[in-house]
Amino acid sequence: xxxxxxxxxxxxxxxxxxxxxxxxVGPTDPVFAAxxxxxxxxxxVKPNISVVDMRVEWFxxxxxxxxxxxxxxxxxxxxxxIQSYRGRTELNNQELQRGNASLKLSSVRVSDEGxxxxxxxxxxQYDDTTVNVSVEGE
Length: 138
Ligand SMILES: *[C@@H]1O[C@H](CO)[C@@H](O)[C@H](O)[C@H]1NC(C)=O
Ligand SMILES: *[C@@H]1O[C@H](CO)[C@@H](O)[C@H](O)[C@H]1NC(C)=O
Ligand SMILES: *[C@@H]1O[C@H](CO)[C@@H](O)[C@H](O)[C@H]1NC(C)=O
What we know:
Elements: H1 2-19, E1 23-25, E2 31-34, E3 39-41, E4 44-46, E5 55-59, E6 67-72, E7 75-77, E8 89-91, H2 93-97, E9 103-105, E10 114-121, E11 126-136
Parallel strand pairs: 2-11
Antiparallel strand pairs: 1-4, 3-9, 5-6, 5-10, 6-7, 8-9, 10-11
The chain binds 2-acetamido-2-deoxy-beta-D-glucopyranose (3 copies).
One 2-acetamido-2-deoxy-beta-D-glucopyranose binds at residues 28, 30, 115, 130, 132.
GO molecular function: signaling receptor binding
Signal peptide: 1-19
GO biological process, one term: regulation of leukocyte cell-cell adhesion
């Protein structure tokens, strides 16, 4: 009996950490944005579990100071954000609960063009996806 209980505990422990597994997915094609307008950079986890308790970081891997938006410990943190993104980025908290970590970027600038990474880290794992942004016109 004792053995069975311990076995069950171990099995349920395994399924628990399994259910935490997720993949971060983004668009397969580049995102086109018009200068001056707002754009959504899509990013979500599959399965669509809540990412509210996770770290969500949007950054530009090709830049030296790379941080575009950081959500960590349940709040947005702006201390290391690239200056030119100040006040232009937004994560929707309700969407985070549905596994949607898409970034809203306002008043798009030509300099926003480039490669973005959406990085999502839980206590157990992390994954990321790349979103290419192409900006048209002035
Ligand atoms: C983004 O662009 C790079 C080249 O700059 C390309 O290698 C990569 O496949 C693109 N990824 C997506 C998701 O568009
Ligand atoms: C994800 O959230 C953004 C807003 O942050 C919204 O525009 C978009 O429609 C959502 N995507 C899905 C699949 O619900
Ligand atoms: C998650 O995805 C499932 C299946 O696609 C859907 O039925 C469900 O409504 C989604 N849950 C949330 C919170 O968006």
